[in-house]
Amino acid sequence: MGRRYVEVFRCKKLEYYSAIANEVSQGGYFESEYRRSSPPLRPPKKPAEDKGNMEYTEVLKLRGLPYSATTEDIIKFFLEYELTEDNVHIAIRSDGKAISEAFVEFPTTEVAKTAMCKDKMTIGTRYVELFPSTPEEASRARTRGRH
């Protein structure tokens, strides 16, 4: 759209309905913003409690990574958490190409919650979103890349 690209992600019906409900409650944000002469760089942030209400495990999902990001880049991003290569799993497609997502395993759920302070910080020129995840989701992402 213009000079910007749009990423499309699979979502659950509940996430879709929540987005629609948010759109309605905000009075048609995208319609009114679209008509302005200079569109915003990002849509308004969802309330902070959205991620806070999610159930945490020791795993966080990173989305928006540079395609060139390495395990070492992610370890440096979380430098104060003393991760090892075994804690970082970069998601790849079946053809071996990165998909700009990774999963990081922390020692405990509490450490993972603390690491959420890195949400929307940058690796390279890309800001990275963090989400609570599960070991099962991380495992599915690893096996998807092995087909």
TrEMBL record:
GO cellular component: ribonucleoprotein complex
Record keyword Ligase present: no
Entries under CDD domains matching the protein: RRM_hnRNPH_ESRPs_RBM12_like
Domain spans labelled RRM: 62-126
Entries under SUPFAM superfamilies matching the protein: RNA-binding domain, RBD
Pfam family, one: RRM_1
InterPro entries noted in UniProt: ESRP (IPR050666), Nucleotide-bd_a/b_plait_sf (IPR012677), RBD_domain_sf (IPR035979), RRM_dom (IPR000504)
Stretch list, region Disordered: 32-53
Superkingdom, taxonomy of origin: Eukaryota
Protein name: Heterogeneous nuclear ribonucleoprotein F
Gene name as annotated: HNRNPF
